[in-house]
Amino acid sequence: MSAVTVVGAGMAGCEAAWAVAEAGIPVTLYEMKPVKFSPAHHSENFAELVCSNSLKASRIDSAAGLLKEEMRRLGSLLVPCAEACAVEAGGALAVDREQFSQLVTEKIRSHPHITVINEEITAIPDGNVIIATGPLTSDALNAPIAALTGKSLYFYDAAAPIVTGESVSMERAFYASRYGKGTADYLNCPMTKEEYLAFYEALIHAEAAPLHDFEQEALRVYEGCMPVEVLAKRGEDAIRYGMMKPVGLTDPHTGTRPYAVVQLRKENREGTLWNLVGFQTNLKWGEQKRVFSMIPGLEHAEFVRYGVMHRNSFLDSPRLLDQTYALRKEPRIRFAGQMTGVEGYMESAGSGILAGLNTVRALNGEQPLILPRETMLGALTAYITDPYQENLQPMGANMGILPMPEGKFRGKDGKQRKYQAYAERALAALDQTIRR
User: Fold this and answer.
1) Of 271, 291, 307, which residue is a domain's last?
2) Domain range holding 9?
3) Residue 359 or residue 33, greater confidence
4) Same domain, 138 and 179
5) 332 pLDDT band (50/70/90 cuts)?
């Protein structure tokens, strides 16, 4: 049986390697860490979560929950690993990022059909290959990819700061989830109108970190990870109606709803580390300390990681890839992950599963696995590979990309019933496709 090369041991690369290896086909997995790190990576382990530690909602009648259930049914490695490393996050699946990466690394390294080589790849390997080097693909590999595919597109991504739990002042902060849903898994830092306006002014006038030389081309910020200071400059209430919305929360210290709220979410099971939800930033580190310490409860916060910003690259997939993630002009080469235009941790991992399963099918002379548009993975794949797509922007899982279900969904619970119908239809279509 022919061997398969997978380049990159991030979310997509690990799923791709696992899918191929589980079929009994030898895999050589190349990962440049720890020989070389990208600007945003720090851990030697695989499947490192660079931004948030949340994998979004767990409910099957949500876009993110449906995506994860589809992945589970397709043999995902990462979904059960994430569940084994979960931390409290209300209705979301959030993980202890270090435990998660370590568990995935152990699973990959111990698989009898996977050989890991820690080396930077600077040319596209021969034979069947899946390139899953992510949005931070090194310049050395970007050059041959660009030569093969044409100029890559790019946008910019940002990560939020992390503080220690013990340094948060509970004289102002309080535990709660919005509308009391689930358990009180978030730390909430409430603001009065005066506090918010002072914070807002400091934020919009704070000094941003300079971009590197290679980042001086026209800056393109992806809306899903926009730096908080960029969003704030759209208007005084932009962040108060965004990540700082106070709806569904009552400050137990005052008995009233705050004017604005900053929420913190657990980074690890022990609750010793917390991240500022939605506070991705490119401010200078000293400015982050100064401005974010103005948040009530964070006056003496200990920052263990400041926010960072980096360039993300993705392909012109509508012109380049088919629905098996294969390069149309050279099908032995497949791409997976955020570089294909899917956005999000699990979306990237899901593309890795499909790239891996379709590589197996191609080697076995079988028909490709094309998921129905009614499934979340099928809809995402169709979206990013649609040749009529003029200007691709990264797309994450959402119900809006699925065909409308039949029936009318009126009344107070209409939206919930509609989403349940989406989920039931998707899983039935997926199961039928798998059985073929």
Assistant:
1) 307
2) 4-157+312-435
3) 359
4) no
5) very high
DSSP string, 135-152: TT--HHHHHHHHHHH-PP
In tens, the pLDDT along 152-185 reads: 667 777 789 999 998 999 999 999 998 887 788 8
pTM beyond cutoff 0.85: no
344/424 same-domain check: yes
* pLDDT reported for residue 224: 65
pLDDT in tens, 385-400: 998 877 787 888 988 8
Same domain for 139 and 16:
yes
Separation between Cα atoms, residue 431 and residue 178, nearest integer Å: 35
* 15 and 153 part of one domain: yes
Helix (H) or strand (E) holding 247: none
**Dihedral angle sign, alpha carbons of residues 326, 393, 156, 83:** negative
Structural element, H or E, at residue 212: none
The number of beta carbons lying within 10 Å of the beta carbon of residue 217 is: 9
The residue written with tokens 């926010």 in the block is: 307
Confidence (pLDDT) at 2:
59
CB hemisphere CA count around 35 (13 angstroms):
10
What are the backbone dihedrals phi and psi of residue 253, each rounded to the nearest 5 degrees, phi first?
Answer: -75, -25
Indicate the number of domains in the chain. 2
C-alpha to C-alpha distances, 143 to 7, 121, 331, 333, nearest whole angstrom = 15, 11, 19, 16
Token code pair at residue 97: 């990022």
d(C-alpha 100, C-alpha 159), whole Å: 18
Torsion, Cα 389 394 396 400, to 10 degrees, reads: -30
* 279 and 405 inside one domain: no
| DSSP three-state, residue 109 | helix
Q: Can you count the helices (H) and strands (E) in the chain?
A: 12, 17
> Percent of the chain having pLDDT more than 90?
70
User: CA 151, CA 156: separation in Å to the nearest integer?
Assistant: 16
Phi then psi for 425, rounded to 5 degrees?
-65, -40
Average pLDDT, the chain: 91
Q: State how beta strands 4-7 and 330-335 pair.
A: unpaired
| Number of other CB atoms surrounding residue 341 within 10 Å | 26
Cα–Cα distance list, 85 to 95, 97, 119, 184 (Å): 5, 8, 28, 19
